[in-house]
From TrEMBL:
A single GO molecular function term of this UniProt record: ATP binding
Organism: Sphingobium cupriresistens LL01
Domain of life from the UniProt record: Bacteria
Protein name: Helicase
Signal sequence bounds: none
Alphabetical keyword list: ATP-binding, DNA damage, DNA repair, DNA-binding, Helicase, Hydrolase, Isomerase, Nucleotide-binding
């Protein structure tokens, strides 16, 4: 029998006409046994309450004025939102339990007070927890900690933030071995992999899996445009009037976009179509804290009819009055789609309503694949990886700030964190000596000598200034060089990247925070603007684009090879595929289709690999290099998530020679080392590891200054210490994070045995969406849109001719 709820909590449930759900009682039972627990339950199932229920019950039975429960979320907004939602039942039950947040936005005086007089429940982020552990009083602060709750664990467990959090959990477990770990998620494909990540020493049997009841099936539709599904584009902006009609028919709608630039674009398109002048707003991570908080408050109060957002609101920010979620462009994964669908209604017993707006014909297939995956209960696979050494260096330095340590004891503790369970003593020694002096190539510089080993073997921080330096600069998220966007009165609207700002001159205009802004002036840190009615453009932000998950890609390949399923598609999509089958070929699952054909004096090779834009961009660079070596005179390439088109002055007659496996050994390594790719990766790992500081007391370095510093060190290490720990970490990042090299390798392997090469006399229907991009790649102004449209229509007419 599961333990009974305290009477005061039972009465609270009854007052609301509720009964505790089975998984909420299962979480209580796991806590009673002292087990760690992983709860996987759909959005709206009372997941957060289930995580906190054992803590509330224990605090009622055993009151304390010490820190009892630590809640960690991937987003500051989520911590704030959970506090608001948790305080409601606490206040309604009349409990004397304090709940506070601690994030980068928390005032410094409150942070100082929290270390002396903590609340019983503290809500924080991985970075803020890591900083708390860097203080000498950390052991005292966390000595009575009973429970740690990791929310939305799928969002960061497989990333560097997950490495940092797992290392922090290992330290907390060392401080209090009785600490119980809890993780919550709505979208986990491999439950056992997450249980292993959560468990101390990776001992999966110590983590109880708790599976929530299935909720009502979501009601998801694909919006078919007035007219025909577009051939190209990925924004879905063509449907702005239809989206506004959906917004008008509902109380509150969330409109999700995959990038910040796309969110700005879609907001402008919706505003232009907003004939009823409904209150709509925009929310993304580059807007100022004040702007985001204002929008979040308005949304919570039900004052907005629609909110255009990015992944900044993917996770857990729960507004019960959201009627519908609209996804602009393809969702890229079934788990991400489920996460976003869950933002609507937020009731387990009511269907969440969602509408997908595919940007083009391939995206229609992807949207259909995502719907089928959701209906089949299929989730995107997560790729767990070995813990990063730059993150470990930051963690070790943080613990050194708290007090001296012995290497052998800390190594044992670090190995109890699952991502670092296989860490060798030699690798750990390299990390220590890197922090001690930067490596032998940098040993002459005092500013890199952060650790000192005493005669008795203990390690300590070399000078107090390094403690301050660490706390100012710690963190895993490395911002791209950016300028603050401000009005002349100093009011900050947010940030844009230096690369975009460098293209602007006084008098230029751009869209930001939902407004058209004109540049007044620019200095090293600020872009001063004023509101304008002039035509504007959309800012760009860095970072790789989200690739379609491998499972969705497999489903799309299946569609191409299964004509019996085409009756489910709109007539124009069906006609497109039928004409492709007639004129060329459709690849079987696992097959790699390569088409070659002439078009307007150029020769084209189009590869249909479905491995995502990032992998295709890398492959395009490698293929054009190899074509140059073979004398094929390449001119360039374009790609989308589904295909890559390379074009040149001479025809490719033997594509297999271009796709041979050694391309990843020769051209890839040469390209990465000569491009800025490795330098950008090195910049990130140098900042994360603490080698380069972003901030000095009272002053923050500009992005240019950070880049200049890291470029100098990069050149020194490449020349004098090519096996340096950070160069190895940068290579790992460049390969895995920036180029999707794993998918690239799979593509090359597949090409060796499954390539289907079709030689055509002219462009094929399947090639049209990617070839249309060639004109758009070179056009910056909208004045040329009409010419591009005529060119696209001619291309479509040529491809769709049956003769």
């Amino acid at each position: 029998m599961p333990p009974a709820l305290p009477a005061i909590i039972e009465d609270w449930f009854a007052s609301r006409g509720w009964l505790p759900r089975r998984h909420q009682m299962d979480m209580l039972a796991a806590a009673a046994k002292g087990d760690h627990a992983l709860l996987v339950a759909p959005t709206g199932a009372g997941k957060t309450l289930a995580g906190f229920l054992p803590s509330l019950a224990d605090l009622i039975a055993h009151p304390t004025d010490r820190l009892h429960t630590l809640y960690v979320s991937p987003l500051k907004a989520l911590a704030v939102d959970v506090r608001r939602n948790l305080l409601t039942p606490i206040e309604e039950m009349g409990l004397s339990i304090s709940v506070e947040t601690r994030t980068g936005d928390t005032p410094s005086d409150r942070k100082a007070r929290q270390r002396v007089r903590p609340p019983q429940i503290l809500l924080t982020t991985p970075e803020s927890l890591s900083l708390l552990l860097s203080y000498p009083d950390a052991a005292l602060l966390f000595s009575d900690l009973r429970t740690m709750i990791v929310d939305e664990v799928h969002a960061f467990a497989t990333q560097k933030r997950g490495d940092l959090l797992n290392l922090s959990m290992a330290r907390l477990q060392a401080i209090n071995p009785a600490l119980r770990r809890v993780a919550l998620s709505a979208t986990v494909a491999d439950v056992d992999a997450y249980r292993a990540w959560l468990a101390p020493d990776g001992d999966i049997d110590r983590v109880t899996p708790v599976m929530g009841e299935a909720g009502a099936e979501p009601n998801v539709a694909i919006l078919i445009p007035e007219g025909r599904v577009p051939w190209s584009g990925h924004s879905g902006k063509y449907a702005a009037k239809q989206v506004m009609a959906e917004i008008e028919a509902r109380q509150t709608t969330l409109v999700f976009c995959n990038t910040r630039g796309l969110a700005e674009l879609i907001f402008q398109e919706l505003w232009s179509a907003n004939d009823a002048n409904l209150p709509i707003a925009i929310h993304h991570g580059s807007l100022s804290i004040e702007a985001r908080r204002k929008v979040e408050s308005a949304m919570a109060a039900g004052k907005l009819r629609a909110l255009v957002a990015t992944a900044s609101l993917d996770l857990g920010v729960d507004w019960g009055n959201v009627d519908c979620v609209i996804q602009m462009g393809a969702p890229k994964g079934s788990s991400r789609l489920l996460q976003r669908i869950g933002r609507a209604n937020h009731r387990l017993d009511q269907s969440s309503e969602a509408i997908l707006i595919p940007g083009n014909r391939f995206e229609y297939l992807e949207a259909r694949a995502a719907l089928d995956a959701v209906e089949a209960g299929e989730r995107d696979a997560d790729d767990f990886r070995v813990g990063s050494l730059d993150v470990l260096a930051q963690h070790v330095m943080g613990l050194a700030c708290a007090g001296p340590f012995r290497a052998e004891e800390l190594l044992e503790e670090v190995r109890s964190a699952t991502p670092y369970s296989a860490l060798t003593a030699e690798a750990f020694d390299h990390v220590l000596h890197f922090i001690e002096g930067g490596g032998y190539a940098l040993r002459a510089y005092d500013r890199f000598k952060r650790l000192t080993q005493d005669d008795d073997g203990t390690w300590r921080v070399s000078h107090p200034r390094f403690v301050q330096q660490h706390r100012l600069n710690a963190g895993i998220i490395v911002d791209q060089p950016a300028l603050a966007v401000r009005f002349a009165n100093g009011r900050k609207l947010g940030t844009v990247e230096e690369g975009f700002a460098a293209q602007l001159r006084p008098g230029d205009s751009f869209f930001f925070s939902g407004m058209a802004l004109e540049v007044v002036r620019m200095d090293t840190s600020d872009l001063t603007v004023r509101a304008t009615s002039k035509q504007a453009r959309i800012p760009s932000w860095g970072g790789t684009r989200m690739a379609m998950s491998t499972r969705l890609a497999d489903r799309v390949r299946h569609f191409l090879a299964a004509p019996q399923e085409w009756h489910r598609f709109p007539p124009d999509v069906r006609e497109w595929l039928e004409m492709q089958k007639l004129r060329s070929a459709l690849p079987q699952p696992g097959q790699l289709l390569i088409e070659t054909f002439p078009h307007e004096g150029r020769h084209y090779l189009v590869c249909y690999s479905f491995e995502g834009w990032n992998a295709h961009q890398s492959l395009g660079m490698l293929l054009t290099r190899r074509m140059e070596t073979q004398g094929l005179m390449p001119l360039g390439f374009v790609s989308n998530d589904y295909a890559l088109a390379v074009y040149g002055l001479k025809p490719v007659t033997d594509p297999k020679s271009l796709f041979s496996a050694d391309i990843l050994d020769h051209e890839f390594i040469d390209w990465v080392e000569q491009s800025s790719l490795l330098k950008r990766a090195f910049r990130d790992v140098a900042v994360i590891s603490g080698l380069i500081e972003r901030q000095h007391p009272g002053k923050r370095k500009t992005g240019r200054q950070v880049t200049f510093s890291t470029d100098l060190i990069y050149d020194v290490l490449r020349k004098y210490q090519p096996d340096h720990l950070l160069l190895k970490a940068a290579w790992a990042d460049a390969r895995a994070r920036m180029t999707d090299v794993g998918r690239l390798g799979d593509l090359i392997d597949r090409a060796a045995t499954t390539m289907l090469h079709v030689t055509l006399e002219r462009v094929s229907p399947l090639a049209v969406p990617v070839l249309i991009l060639i004109g758009r790649e070179h056009v910056a102004q909208t004045a040329a849109e009409d010419a591009l449209l005529m060119e696209a229509e001619a291309l479509v007419a040529e491809a769709m001719r049956a003769d």
